[in-house]
Amino acid sequence: MEEAIQGTHLEELKPPVTSVGVIGWVKNNLFNGWFNSILTIVILFFLWKTVPFLFRWAFIDSVWHTPGQGCREAAGACWSIISTNFRFIIFGFFPYEQQWRPLLAMMILFGLLFYSRDRNHWKKPLGYAWIMGLFTMGLLMKGGLFGLTPVESTQWGGLPLTLLLSVFGLTAAYPLGVLLALGRQSKMPALKLLCILYIELIRGVPLISLLFMSSIIFPLFLPEGITINKILRAQVAIILFTAAYIAEVVRGGLQGMSRGQYEAAESMGLNYYLTMRLVILPQALKIVIPPTVSILISAFKDTSLVVIIALFDLLKTTQSVLSNPEWMGFSREAYIFIAILYFLGCFSMSNYSRKLEKELSRGD
Amino acid sequence: MNKGLSKDTENRSSDEAMIEIIDMHKWFGDFHVLQGINLTVQKKERIVVCGPSGSGKSTLIRCINRLEEHQRGRIIVDGIELTNNIKNIEKIRAEVGIVFQHFNLFPHLTIVENLTLGPIWARKVPKAEAEETAMYFLDKVHIPEQAKKYPGQLSGGQQQRVAIARSLCMNPKVMLFDEPTSALDPEMIKEVLDVMIELAQEGMTMIVVSHEMGFAKSVAHRVLFMDFGQIVEGNTPEEFFENPQNERTKLFLSQILH
Lengths: 364, 258
Fold this sequence. Notes:
A: 364 residues; mainly alpha; MetI-like fold; globular; B: alpha/beta; six-stranded mixed β-sheet; 38% helix
């Protein structure tokens, strides 16, 4: 009887107003203790001083569609530099009337990437779709078949070039890095030594010097008359560089695996290849998703270093616009714009990696 | 505990050796961990190996399926000699199942995937058939309802029973147990031992490294005591526990039986 009374009493009792809802949240998170209260007030003051100003600059006083002269009279941001030069920033020197081709190629790429997000779609047809897609993208960029005007790769530039370098760079560097990590763990001394040498040498030099070597020194060793495409050389340099870093991260994951996992697989008769493919790598690669994605993100941004070997990637096309006297001095707006583009790329990578991690951690 | 468990030598053919180990030595660096092991295990014989830690008992059974390599002497399993010949190692591993102290299930695979991985990939058994076998053995270890879960969602005792079922799916002739209950909470030991007893009743040849003396008494045909890399004493459980011959055995038994 007494219990019943107590039970009903408890049900009616609600937590005090000050600990729930908006007030409760504010109290618990912003004003718990004098130190946090002061921090909150200082930050609010700082925001009040900056945000309205930034907002005015970016949206109210800004101009969106004027020639360069109009910009100089405006008090706010000059977004006209983007709107006027948009197609050059995005496509570089690709022939103006043919720019639908890289646009279509990028749309195919984004479509394929988007469809590949879902791991349930990772089946054979998707592989064929990628092969078809890559072939179509190559055809669109290069032309020369089906009545498409040929476009030299020296005219490729802007966003398509950045995407080309990063998507191929990352997808090729990842498996290469995994192989290098496995090689470094190998029981075969020659293979092991080779992998260690490779990893340490590549990690020991900056990407810039690799790019220089690929563009200046490497051609010296080629026989007379043979040239290898400049984009391809830069691409290879990026792949080789990124792979060395991925190899070390993957090695960390491999070392995290307990010996028991190898022994269990071995004692049930799985050979080295099957043990790695079915037991060790699925676990090891999952553990190292966060650092791997860090490397992939930084490699994505590092593709902008191809500027120094005069490839017109996204950063370089933007800089060329800025060197035009009409638009000189509006670098803030231009850099904010490409920063947003890079951010979108990096953010979707890290977002996707979090989704992948969540999906793969069902077992724990 | 041992209802219907016959220890008659009749149902094991004493002239047929399942495992023969002849003057086997092993070193870890300079440490002489196994010093001249001689052991013959008959078909359907059940042996429990005990001894203080570091005495080499785990190493002994791990040598039998080449998780450790012996450096001198011979090991012959079902007529196949264990050498560096990879074909022989594969054949022997196909006949020898092992259950580890820490289960070593594959945490990224479901229980049924753990059980079918070996049959499907190493034996090329069709998937449907492998799953049927897996369910049969999960039933035998009394956890068919856990098939779709992941190892991390199971208790220690359940995981160890899955590990036993996983070995059985490879259809072994010999089962090795490397301290199968010493990583378990006390209340889970019995469920694992019960499964092992049922396996014994079906006539499986077993070598069990364990300090579960109750299990040894009721199931083993022979109990071996190892110390400093040698088999010091081996006898029927009755003789071994009632009338130990060697001083070290007596000391060890007095320590673990209190």
